[in-house]
Each structure stands twice: as C-alpha cells, then as structure tokens.
UniProtKB/TrEMBL annotation:
PROSITE patterns reported for this sequence: SERPIN
Family that this chain belongs to: Belongs to the serpin family.
Name listed for the protein in its UniProt record: Serpin
Organism: Methanoculleus chikugoensis
Domain of life: Archaea
Boundaries of every Serpin domain copy: 53-421
InterPro entries attached to this UniProt entry: Serpin_CS, Serpin_dom, Serpin_fam
Length: 424
C-alpha cells in the first residue's frame, strides 16, 4: 500500500548552516580528536567527525566530483539527520544511528546536541557565530506530541503552523526568508520551486552561520596574482595572500609527505576556532586525503607546534550543492529512502520516507578571515615558542584539504578541498 502512496504525503526539510561544538560526556576517553585534546568515542563530537571523514570519502570517490572542489558541513548534515532520527524507528533508526555514529545513549545524544547549540550561541565580540532551529508544520496535520516536544526541548525547534495545502508557494517563501535571514543571505532559495505542495506535512530548519577574522590577518597589499597548479601540466592564475613577517607564528608540523598548518580565528571570550590545512608536499592530493582519519589526524594535530611559518595561501570562494541520497545510502542508510522507511515516531503512521537530502554550502576566505554557511534540506515524502631561524615555507599553490575546527571539543565545523580556487 505504501508504494501507491509515495507521492501522497509531504515534505520534511531541515535547513542547516554550519559549525558546531560538542559535549564530551562521562565515558572513557580515546584518541579520537583533532583539537589537541582527547575526545570521548561515544559523543556527538566524535560521531560528527567520523561521519565527516566517511562522507568526504564518499563524495571524493564519486566520479562525478573527480576534479571538483568539495565543501560541506558535516555538522549541518548530522544535525539535520539527528532531528530526523528522533522520529525514526526500527531499521531506519538503526541505519541513521550507524551512519551518523550517533551516541547510543539517548540522554548523551540529546544533551550533546543541546549543549552544542548553547555553545554556538555564546556571544563573542570577535566573531559572529549563531544557530537556530524551527519546525514548520502543515496546520491541518497532526504530529505526535512526543516528537514535537523532543524537537523543542533538545533542539530548541518550536513549531509554526503554515498553510501548505492552500498556499504552498507562500509557505516556501516564508521558510526561505527565515533561512536567508539566519545566514546573512548566503544561503538563498533553499527550498526550490515546487518543493512544497499540498502534500507537504513538515519542514524542519536549522541554521548556523559563522564569520570570523584571523588572529594573524594578511596584508591586502601583499596579495598578488600567482600560479596555482591544478595538475602537473595545468595551472590557473589566482590571488595569493602572503604572511611571511616575524610575527607569522602558526601551529605547524610536517611529515615525509605532508605539511599541516593551523590558522586560528580571533575569539576573545568565545569558543576557539581555527582552520586546519593539510597540504601534500607533492601534487598528489591522495596523501592529504589519507590523513582524514580520527587517529591519523589526532597524531598530526597533537604534533603541531607554534613557530614562524612563511605562509602563501590562496583567496577563494566556494559555493557547492549536493544531492545526498545516493551517498548516504551507499554509506549504510538506504532504508530511509525506500518505501520500507519507518518514520512513525513523527506522526504515528508508516507512510513517510525521505525522498531527497540536498545540501548547499558557502565559504569565502580572504585577507581578513572567513565567512561560511551551509544548508541541508531533507525532504520527507509520503502520504607558543618560535621555531628555528629558517622558517618553513607553506605555499598552498596546489590542491589541498582544509577543515574549520572548534578547539575544545575538536568538532569539525566545515570541511573541503580546493582543487581549483577559481572554480565554482
């Protein structure tokens, strides 16, 4: 019967814009960390980071993205699907939990996400960092009070009723305006035309926005056009920033195949954030991607030392968009996208399933700092010390991987690779 009703029940959208922190919880500690501190295995932060590496590999290995820049928010996507998970049951819930590496303890999981939201909204005069959640429900449709209450209590997502049946276009525009306002207009038209119709039942939105300045800002007068190697025999001309003075002190380490640089953002009394750049010494990006593993990255992160580094780094702006059902299904959660999905924890029926997961992300890196945002739409249908005098040169003039990381919990806020700074 469900197959006959695939087009018959509405849309659940989770719009998220990125960044995140975590609560470690009282469980044994391991080396699953990229922040210089140990992170407990069974926490939201640890699960988010494992999901980040898994999804990066899935996207990077997809032939469709073979020569593409990548940029996404693992925290945005995992947060969106965590709210979906609150309404999932049976195999559907088991698969989402496994793919997201969610804490198995319900209290730890819920308190973890609640703690992240509280931390994200802690004010700082040095950067802008905020998050907000909301539920948008079809005014004539009934949802289980337990689901609505869980969304409000643990995710701060209060419900607003909209007339999806008689005014789907107006409802879509209302939600899109909210997302745009939360992201300073960096994520526009999250819900495309015709994504909401008279069969839509619920839209869940989470928005996160970050804008920060470097502790060590680059002088625009030092920025110059230089070559960036896309491949061994292919270059593009890009704007390269330079910071090579005596005060260019950064966290730095290197191995036989990699250079790793930590560029912190000014934070005042707020949470400490930084960009971690993994640059292969040769032009083989695989060397950097092989480091995207909790233990390997923890080892690199733990070996960073503050020293003078001559930094040459490209300015770039990336805007990306992904449809994720294929990737997420391949990672181990196919049931949510099938007629066998069980999202009965949302409405008490077995008629809902996820028809699409669309993710958009934006990042702008310049002399002053970084601005980043992302959005995820899950559509549910159904009815210190200076180093040696000779400073190393960190010249990022060929493809590299980068992450924006929260220091205390080690949570990855943004993640991507730059293959071509002039690309989309």
């Amino acid at each position: 019967m469900k197959k006959l009703l695939i087009s018959g029940i509405g849309i659940l959208v989770l719009a998220l814009i990125v960044t995140g922190l975590a609560v470690c919880g009282t469980v044994p500690l391991s080396t699953n960390s990229i922040s210089g501190v140990h992170v407990a295995d069974d926490t939201v932060a640890a699960g988010n980071n494992r999901f980040a590496f898994d999804l990066y590999r899935q996207l990077a290995n997809d032939p469709v993205h073979a020569r593409d820049n990548l940029f996404f928010s693992p925290y945005s996507i995992s947060s969106a699907l965590a709210i979906t998970y609150e309404g999932a049951r049976g195999t559907t819930a088991d698969e989402i939990e496994s793919v997201l590496h969610l804490p198995t303890n319900e209290t730890l999981r819920r308190a973890g996400f609640a703690g992240l939201d509280a931390s994200l909204n802690r004010r700082s005069g040095n950067y802008t960092l905020r998050t907000a959640n909301a539920l948008w429900a079809e005014e004539t449709y009934s949802f289980l009070p337990a689901y609505i209450d869980a969304a409000a209590r643990w995710y701060g997502a209060n419900v607003t009723n909209l007339d999806f049946v008689n005014d789907p276009r107006g409802s879509r525009e209302t939600i899109n305006r909210w997302v745009e306002e939360q992201t300073e207009d960096k994520i526009r038209d999250l819900l495309p035309a015709d994504s909401i119709d008279d069969l839509t039942r619920l839209v869940i939105t989470n928005a996160i926005y970050f804008k920060g300045t470097w502790v060590k800002q680059f002088d625009p007068a030092e920025t110059a056009e230089e070559a960036f190697r896309i491949a061994q025999d292919e270059i593009v001309r890009v704007q390269m920033m330079h910071r090579t003075d005596e005060d260019a002190i950064y966290g730095y380490t290197e191995t036989g195949t990699l250079q790793v640089l930590r560029m912190p953002y000014a934070h005042g009394n707020g949470t400490e954030l930084s960009m971690l750049v993994i640059l292969p010494k040769e032009d083989n990006l695989t060397a950097a991607e092989e480091a995207l593993d909790p233990e390997k990255l923890d080892e690199l992160r733990g070996s960073l030392t503050d020293r003078r580094v001559r930094v040459v780094f490209p300015k770039f702006t990336l805007e990306t968009e992904y449809s994720l059902p294929k990737a997420l299904a391949a990672m181990g959660m196919p049931t949510a996208f099938s007629p066998d999905a069980d999202l009965s924890g949302m409405d008490g029926t077995d008629m809902l399933f996820v028809s699409d997961v669309v993710h958009k992300a934006f990042v702008d890196v310049n002399e002053e700092g970084t601005e980043a945002a992302a959005a995820t739409a899950v559509i549910v249908a159904g009815g210190g010390a200076v180093g040696p005098e000779t400073a190393p040169i960190f010249r990022a003039d060929h493809p590299f991987v980068f992450l924006i990381v929260e220091k205390d919990s080690g949570t990855i806020l943004f993640m991507g690779r730059v293959v071509n700074p002039e690309g989309p």
